[in-house]
């Protein structure tokens, strides 16, 4: 099983990418791992045209290949003004359902304070309709992120509880990845009549 971990911060060396690295290292059940730190790829602002994604100055072809080969994803966003990052939302608009449909995703929100719930609600509500990514019921909110997952010698009870929750959520993501792979295989080998007419969500 292949896992793709996507950090949606618009800043390099971000707390979101720190969380991405921790999650990638903790996802032991997946036998292949790759990470994308979106801010390093200069993706274009999505204009609705497929051709714009494949301009030679961008890296979308490589990203599309990683999406296509992945069996599951972790989508990580910082909370900016109570919202998911524009970079992650732009990325999700660019995703082609041929690469992402019926693949499970663990949603992760990162907050420097005690909030972080709004980006999860936003992504569940309106970010997954046409790419047909399946957000699993579990999600993670990493609050006071500067204080956790940094490899400190002394681990607080809050961090122990967070790591236990992370391990559970990664296990659930793996279970969904195995189950949905069966659905994708059947969807390809036994297509529903004229299924291409229902490519987009309602």
Question: Could you describe the 3D structure shown?
Answer:
This protein has 202 residues and is an alpha/beta fold. The chain is 41% helix and 17% strand. The chain contains 7 helices and 5 strands. Strands 2-1-3-4-5 form a 5-stranded parallel beta sheet, with helices on both faces. Helix 1 links the parallel strand 1 and strand 2 (32-37). The protein is globular, with a radius of gyration of 17 Å. The mean pLDDT is 94.
Distinctive features:
single chain; 202 residues; alpha/beta; Rossmann fold; 5-stranded parallel β-sheet; 7 helices; 5 strands
Layout of secondary structure:
Blueprint: E1 2-7, H1 15-26, E2 32-37, H2 50-53, H3 60-69, E3 72-78, H4 86-94, H5 97-100, E4 104-110, H6 117-126, E5 134-142, H7 157-189
Parallel strand pairs: 1-2, 1-3, 3-4, 4-5
Give a short summary of the structure.
Helix content is about 40%, strand content about 15%.
Between the first and last Cα atoms, what is the distance in angstroms? 30 Å
User: What sequence of helices (H) and strands (E) makes up the elements?
Assistant: EHEHHEHHEHEH
The strands making up the biggest β-sheet line up spatially as 2-1-3-4-5
Could you say which overall geometry the principal axes of the C-alpha atoms support? globular
Annotated CATH architecture: 3-Layer(aba) Sandwich
C-alpha-based Rg, rounded: 17 Å
Low-confidence runs of at least 5 consecutive residues: none
| Biggest sheet architecture | 5 strands, parallel
């Amino acid at each position: 099983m292949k896992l793709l971990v996507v950090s949606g911060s618009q800043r390099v060396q971000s707390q979101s990418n720190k969380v991405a690295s921790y999650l990638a290292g903790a996802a032991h059940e997946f036998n292949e791992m790759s990470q994308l730190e979106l801010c390093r790829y200069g993706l274009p602002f999505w204009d609705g045209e497929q051709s714009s994604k494949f301009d030679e100055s961008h890296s979308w072809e490589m990203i599309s290949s990683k999406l296509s080969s992945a069996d599951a994803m972790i989508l990580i966003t910082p909370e900016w003004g109570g919202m998911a990052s524009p970079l992650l939302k732009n990325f999700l608009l660019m995703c082609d359902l041929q690469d992402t449909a019926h693949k499970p995703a663990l949603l992760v929100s990162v907050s420097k304070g005690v909030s972080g719930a709004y980006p999860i609600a936003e992504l569940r509500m309106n970010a997954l309709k046409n790419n047909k990514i399946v957000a699993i019921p579990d999600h993670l909110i990493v609050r006071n992120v500067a204080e956790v997952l940094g490899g400190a010698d002394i681990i607080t009870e809050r961090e122990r509880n967070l790591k236990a929750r992370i391990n559970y959520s990664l296990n659930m993501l793996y279970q969904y990845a195995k189950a949905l792979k069966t659905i994708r295989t059947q969807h390809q080998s036994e297509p529903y009549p004229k299924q291409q007419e229902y490519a987009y969500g309602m």
